[in-house]
């Protein structure tokens, strides 16, 4: 969490990303442009959206490959 405290009372896993973003935000005149990457890193740490998207793409490709393999095996029989 941005407060710095995790669920178990220690440092939160995303707190270092929040610190980077906050540091950038304070030091720049155009935070929307200059701090976009730090903000994306912080958001990814919180929600894992990019990771989940990649996992779903890999899963889809795996399922397609399995379906092709099953189709080819069925044709050979």
Q: So what's the oligomer here?
A: single chain
Based on secondary structure, the structural category is mainly alpha
Percent range for helical residues?
Answer: over 70%
Rg on CA atoms, Å? 21 Å
Structurally, the number of domains stands at 1
- Tally of alpha and pi helices: 4
Low-confidence stretches: none
Largest sheet: none
End-to-end separation: 57 Å
Could you tell me the number of beta strands? 0
Tell me the series of helices and strands, N- to C-terminal: HHHH
Shape: elongated
Q: Report the average pLDDT across residues.
A: 90
Estimate what percentage of residues fall within beta strands: under 5%
Protein name: NADH dehydrogenase [ubiquinone] iron-sulfur protein 5
Keywords: Disulfide bond, Electron transport, Membrane, Mitochondrion, Mitochondrion inner membrane, Respiratory chain, Transport
GO biological process, one term: mitochondrial respiratory chain complex I assembly
Subcellular location: Mitochondrion inner membrane; Mitochondrion intermembrane space
What does this entry show, briefly?
The protein is mainly alpha-helical. 74% of the residues lie in helices and 0% in strands.
Topology:
Blueprint: H1 15-27, H2 31-34, H3 36-47, H4 49-76
What does this protein look like?
There is one protein chain. This protein has 77 residues and is mainly α. The chain has one domain. Helices cover 74% and strands 0% of the residues. The chain has 4 helices and no strands. It has helices at residues 15-27, 31-34, 36-47, 49-76. The longest helix is centred in the last third of the chain and has 28 residues, at 49-76. The model has no long low-confidence stretch (mean pLDDT 90).
């Amino acid at each position: 969490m941005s407060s710095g405290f995790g669920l178990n009372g220690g440092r939160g896993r995303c707190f270092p990303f929040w610190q980077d973003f906050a540091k950038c935000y304070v030091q720049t005149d155009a935070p929307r442009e200059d701090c976009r990457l730090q903000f994306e890193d912080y958001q990814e740490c919180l929600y894992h959206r990019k990771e989940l998207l990649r996992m779903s793409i890999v899963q889809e490709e795996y399922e397609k490959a399995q379906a092709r393999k099953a189709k080819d095996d069925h044709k050979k029989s």
